[in-house]
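Entry 14. Structure prediction run on the chain below.
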Amino acid sequence: MNILLAKNGIKRGPSYQCLIFLGYLSIYLSIYLSISFCSYLMLNLFIYLSIYLSIYLSPTVCMYICMYVCIYLSLYVCMYVCMYLSEFVYIYLSIYLSIYLSIYLSLCLCVYLSIFAYSLFIQSVHFYISVHLSFSFLTLSVYLSNIVHPSLITLIYLCV
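Output returned:
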């Protein structure tokens, strides 16, 4: 390399070595920062994803549990009324009462859960914004690394 530089009349000085050093340093830093930012963003993404899944699954599971609780409660009321009154007319009354109680309790609990889910909606909007910004930053870093790497390689090649 020194022979080629000497033939072309290019002197190898401190500015040339500094340029080569800066080129290698920028390539190393861009690779290192890309890998570290990708791993950091993936970690944050998994944390936000787990928070979002816990927020989403908790109202859904609560709705199913409340629905089953209402059904069991209505059946319990039905059996209790049937055993307590033990007349044929009151059996139908207890069945209708149990159906009414199950529908009423399901609707009330769904209303309370929808209010609870609305308060969690604000947190999910924050999650969507953070994921969108993370993906935007990741796309920008990949795009910049695709642009910066070839330009640095051509700059180093031209300097050599």
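DSSP finds three helices and no strands in the chain.
Filed with the rest of this week's runs.
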